[in-house]
Design a protein that fits this description.
By secondary structure, the protein is of the alpha+beta class. About 40% of the residues lie in helices and about 20% in strands.
Amino acid sequence: MLRTASEKTSEGINRKALSCFLASIMLLMILPVFAGDKEKDEGTLRQANLVLQGFLNSNNISLTSLSKANCVLILPKIKKFGFGIGGSGGRGPLLCRSGQNFDGKWSTPAMYSVGGMSVGFQVGGSSTDFVLLLMTPKVVNQILSGKTKMGTDATAAAGPGATAASASDAEILTYGKAEGLFAGVSLGGATVEPDNDANHRLYGKTLTATNIVRETGVHPTIEGKSLVAVLDSKLAKHRD
């Protein structure tokens, strides 16, 4: 039976309405991964502390590599999502050594967001912990300046373990853990950028990532202090 023009128009409208409805549902399911408040921000710092201690206590990160790192980015429980969109995302704190030459103690943490880390899920699981070591001043400046894409704006490679004979010459060394399995991951294509909203919630004012990790006027929160203390207790000073 032939349909009238009005029936065809009505069907088209219904399809568009259904598409909009499904898109809205997907967005509502994805947003909680990224949404947050100060309590959740502090929870992220607390989780980052546990992740870092786990990596260090298990000797899966080379202390030699850590001693040469200028900054550390800790990304706990990075989530993978789908619904035809794909990818992954989450956030975590960046800490840098103080001093012009990155030779001092560790800074107040600045929160960062991350996306597109699908490569990391080769180690298994739908939630993965990551630790990234920033090895050169060049890559630190890149990360602090804004959105950075791994493999394009910065070279990243799987980090050597505690028993490795030599370290990679990559700008960023990466470590991942999922379901109890430790593995180096390259994270090619992943992007990281400052989470300005989270930083505003944590410190009560508008600050750049550079303000937080490279200046001395920003003091860490309670959970931030615990994270700084862990790094200072392991390796307070930089090794060339």
